[in-house]
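Protocol step 4 of 6: structure prediction from sequence.
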Amino acid sequence: MNSERASQPRRWWRWALEIAVIIAVVLLIRAWIARDLAQGPAPEFEAFLLDGTPVTLSEFADRPMLLHFWATWCPICRLEEGEIMRLSRSHPVLTVAMQSGSAAEVDEHLTERERELAVVNDPDGALARRYGVRAVPSTFIIDRDGQIVFRKQGYAPPLELRFRLWLARWL
């Protein structure tokens, strides 16, 4: 009986160690995947939204914003669209449709899926290259000073995005 009780704390320590190793591996993989994404000062740009409205990154300088690169042909991007749209109701969000065809094709995609987003079309990927984006989805959170404080390539869980935007606002 005593040996059973003595082995239980060891079992818990082993589980805790295994969980810590798994978390460390996941974080290292995420960092490796995002290694080429822009960091530090966010590259400034001038572009046009799908409706022809001019937009610059400096327009968002009053509070943290989300810059989200996506594509019409990307299944993970389609999975995230709804949450990105919901997020845009409470936070500044600018999205970039990378290599997704003409502005009319991107607009048709959004209309079919009933999505309303501020979208810059990047048909040749020039803006994406300035941010080091090679794959979509890629997401950046930029603070009010124009610094990239978070960057991620791949699916970004909605709660993580909201938490990071909140952190960028208060830190």
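Step 5 (inspection) to follow. The first helix runs from residue 2 to 33.
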